[in-house]
Design goal:
The chain is α/β, with parallel strands linked by helices. It has 3 domains: about 80 residues, Udp-n-acetylmuramoylalanyl-d-glutamate--2,6- Diaminopimelate Ligase, Chain: A, domain 1 (3-Layer(aba) Sandwich); about 210 residues, Hexapeptide repeat proteins (UDP N-Acetylglucosamine Acyltransferase, domain 1), CATH 2.160.10.10; about 30 residues. Strands 8-11-14-17-20-25-28-31-34-37-39-40 form a 12-stranded mixed beta sheet, covered by helices on one side. It has a 10-stranded parallel beta sheet with strand order 9-12-15-18-21-26-29-32-35-38, with no helix packed on it. Strand 39 and strand 40 form a beta hairpin. It starts with 5 loop residues before the first strand and ends with a helix.
């Protein structure tokens, strides 16, 4: 694998950036402030780390304004995070691309329709009636169920399973070992046993959705489970039957959504956050780490805690809880004083008698 090397001046040019300092040094990677060497470019998006950047051994820094007493070359950009994304793409490992065509060890069912430049890896199973759009890559070990439709420019990593009748939009990425369209967790207790409710609905994943590794998106009992365009989902996330997720949402690892819950646009689930079934999460809501939404949440609200409550109130509760040990000690001292006073009072009354 060939490693890319660029003069600092050329990197600045590719980023449409202004360069301060010597641009003749060579960059071959991107690194964090603390461990980047003189062949790596680092970045500064948080000025609380300014002292650390002055101690860094990086060959250059991507930053949004010039720092006068910084000795390393500075690549000045309008948006550090956007420039970092572009830089990471420049120095990404150049892997061999998927080869268009059907691997000889794949199994293709009847009436399957494929667009141009589709790549089907080894040990892939594609069942009857599947449709796959142009330039889509189905990696080794995937299974695509009957009558499922997958759009163009998609990428399914190894061992992804998509059940029957699902609909996957364009430019969708699904990482390894994720399952789409499995039967949801729905049971009725009848005649002394839990009986599985049939799940006859589908899953719809809209355009530009990205789903991490080892996720599960359950099919609906009826109608559909839907993930809106531009939503990004981390690893180990569970989305239950009949859930609707809006556009451009973010879900961090180990988050989960209960059945039939509706999530608006631009909602953020932090790591381990969850929402109960049959509630509504409004547009722009943020549920903090390990937060649990038990009830519907109004648009634009930030909630924290278990169960989740409004952010400011949750912080007050947390601050109060930190004082509990001291308050308990004061309570014990007060109880001891009361007992002593009561004992003294009893002795006085006894003496008068």
């Amino acid at each position: 694998m060939t490693k890319i090397e660029l003069p600092i001046a050329e990197l600045a040019q590719r980023l449409n950036a202004e360069l301060f300092g010597d641009g003749s040094g060579t960059i071959n990677s991107v690194g964090p402030i603390g461990s980047a060497d003189n062949n790596a470019v680092t970045f500064l998006a948080n000025y609380k780390l300014l002292r650390r950047i002055k101690q860094s051994g990086a060959g250059a820094v991507i930053i949004d304004k010039k720092i006068d007493d910084l000795s390393m070359p500075q690549i000045i950009v309008k948006n550090v995070n956007a420039a970092l994304i572009d830089t990471l793409k420049i120095f990404a490992p150049k892997l061999e691309p998927a080869t268009p065509g059907i691997n000889s060890m794949a199994q293709i069912g009847k009436n399957v329709k494929m667009g141009k430049n589709v790549s089907i890896g080894a040990f892939v199973l594609i069942e009857t009636g599947v449709e796959i759009g142009d330039n889509t890559v189905i990696s080794a070990g995937c299974k695509i169920g009957q009558n499922t439709r997958i759009g163009q420019d998609c990428r399914l990593d190894c061992n992804v399973v998509i059940y029957h009748n699902c609909q996957i939009g364009n430019s969708v990425i699904i990482q390894a070992n994720t399952t789409i369209g499995s039967t949801g967790f729905g049971y009725y207790f009848i005649d002394g046993q839990h009986r599985l409710i049939p799940h006859n609905g589908i899953v719809v994943i809209e355009d530009f959705v990205e789903i991490g590794a080892n996720c599960c998106v359950d099919r609906a009992k009826f109608a559909e489970t839907r993930i809106g365009a531009g939503t990004k989902i981390d690893n180990l996330v569970q989305i239950a039957h009949n859930v609707t997720i809006g556009k451009c949402c973010l879900m961090a690892g180990q988050a989960g959504i209960g059945g039939s819950t509706k999530v608006g646009d631009g909602v953020v689930f932090a790591g381990g956050a969850a929402a109960l079934d049959n509630i509504e999460i409004g547009d722009g809501v943020l549920i903090g780490v390990r937060g649990l939404a038990l009830n519907s949440i109004e648009p634009g609200t930030q909630v924290l805690g278990y169960p989740a409550i409004e952010r400011k109130e949750a912080l007050r509760v947390w601050a109060s809880s930190q004082r509990l040990p001291k308050l308990m000690e004061q309570f014990r001292q007060l109880c001891a004083r009361v007992e002593k006073l009561e004992a003294s009072k009893d002795d006085s009354q006894s003496g008068r008698t």
